[in-house]
Amino acid sequence: MSKCGRKKYMKTNLRQMTMETIDSQQDGSLPDSVAESESAHMQMQTGQNSIPTLAQVSVAGSSTGRGSPAVTLVQLPSGQTVHVQGVIQTPQPSVIQSPQIQTVQVATIAETDESADSEGVIDSHKRREILSRRPSYRKILNELSSDVPGVPKIEEEKSEEEGSPPNIAAMAVPTGIYQTSTGQYNEETELAPSHMAAATGDMPTYQIRAPTTALPQGVVMAASPGSLHSPQQLAEEATRKRELRLMKNREAAKECRRRKKEYVKCLESRVAVLEVQNKKLIEELETLKDICSPKTD
DNA sequence: TAAGTAAGACGTCAAAACTG
DNA sequence: CAGTTTTGACGTCTTACTTA
């Protein structure tokens, strides 16, 4: 896999739009912010962008991340589904050389906005201000929970992790090398399989394989930085640091996904609550109308 | 039953956000 | 402001399901 060309992404800024959408949606209809954005364009700008739709984008085609097919179904918060025509291209990372703007039109809305194509004029600083990433899921959800009673907070630490040192480096003693699904080799730790299963609730899907020549055997026994002399030792230390970083990031990614799931669940439950609330209010309104309006016959 | 597809999970990289 | 944490995106794998 080519790693060097990954700088251009189609970031969805999901959280930003989700919060905005949920907050403004009271009657089950399409929020103004979403409607406006859609009428302009669904603009997917690599690097910094926003897709003005809520959470669920189901793709009628390959789901393996290599770009979307010609027709994409976008499910809106109201449950309405719109067909997005045009290919949402996700070019091969190694092919991308410059920032690209990719736009797709929502089929249900004919009107377009000429200004959507003028993104080249917008300087990066301005875009950065407008489209800057929001704080973490944990932060958003905790803010949400302080505003709305009943919304659970995301715990700082999982209960089963209490009492154990949070630092992965401290608890993991590398004892070998295992190969990941992507064919890369990592240091195997004694805790790795059980920890992985505990974090995801699933059985680990990675097989421990016999080490090959990909990594030097002495990696895990690298000396402390102070005693490094030879270039080989320096290289070993660098490798060790890298493995450590990868291991920490691996765990961080798992945790991040867990938080994201929790966050999405929370939003879904909030939508359900608001829908019920909305229904009740409509019924109440109808009742009051009946009471207030005198019957003619 | 083999081939194709969808969904979910994972590891990794890179960049934004956060922190001391 | 450097180091750390968080998260979007990509590529890959596995599993369940569908279809020819």
TrEMBL record:
It is found in: Nucleus. InterPro entries: bZIP, bZIP_sf, CREB1-like_pKID, Leuzip_CREB. Pfam families: bZIP_1, pKID. Residues 40-51 have a biased composition (Polar residues). Residues 239-290 form the BZIP domain. Residues 104-163 form the KID domain. Transmembrane segments: none annotated. Keywords: Activator, Coiled coil, DNA-binding, Nucleus, Phosphoprotein, Repressor, Transcription, Transcription regulation. The keyword Mitochondrion does not apply. PROSITE patterns: BZIP, BZIP_BASIC, KID. Residues 264-291 form a coiled coil. SUPFAM superfamilies: Leucine zipper domain. Residues 20-51 are annotated as: Disordered. Belongs to the bZIP family. This is cAMP-responsive element modulator. It comes from Odocoileus virginianus. The gene is CREM.
